[in-house]
Amino acid sequence: xxxxxxxxxxxxxxxxxxxxxxxxxxxxxxxxxxxxxxxxxxxxxxxxxxxxxxxxxxxxxxxxxxxxxxxxxxxxxxxxxxxxxxxxxxxxxxxxxxxxxxxxxxxxxxxxxxxxxxxxxxxxxxxxxxxxxxxxxxxxxxxxxxxxxxxxxxxxxxxxxxxxxxxxxxxxxxxxxxxxxxxxxxxxxxxxxxxxxxxxxxxxxxxxxxxxxxxx
Length: 216
Known about the structure:
Elements: H1 2-22, E1 26-29, E2 55-58, E3 61-64, E4 75-78, E5 90-94, E6 103-115, E7 119-126, E8 132-140, E9 154-161, E10 163-170, E11 178-186, E12 189-190, H2 194-215
Antiparallel strand pairs: 1-11, 2-5, 3-4, 4-11, 5-10, 6-9, 6-11, 6-12, 7-8, 7-10
């Protein structure tokens, strides 16, 4: 009876935790303007332009605001101008909105919308310890030409996402460059300090033990 009680309590706690996570508000970065509503210059390296939303970019990822094929929908494009035939990887790190404090989110989605060559786009989510939590992929421009009707949203939903990577591989000969738009994610929350987590776990164990004894 004690074991059954503990299992029921743990399952109930997990369900409440999951519901609480998905009740978070969402942020969306459409790359049309920065966090202050100002246009981002074409070719600008993306970094802290969206810190107020809770995300900071690193790697070779650029604002693309003058592409005749995708205008007027501005995108973020990752590629290496010095070696345009080589695939690259860029990153988005989640922070407490408006700060550099490490934070986590539970969902990320975006739309790969343009590629210089038929390519495979990969979105990978990582935890606080750098471990891979989940991966999602899609083919960009499957017909070999730009058709917005073919764009597919790539989504990852998993608790504890500290950062994500954008990468890809060529499926045909040509240059490597992939653009994406409408990056949406649950509003990041600060990463709990290890001591805080330990205290919460110990407190939960003590509470469960006390309830188990009372029901024995």
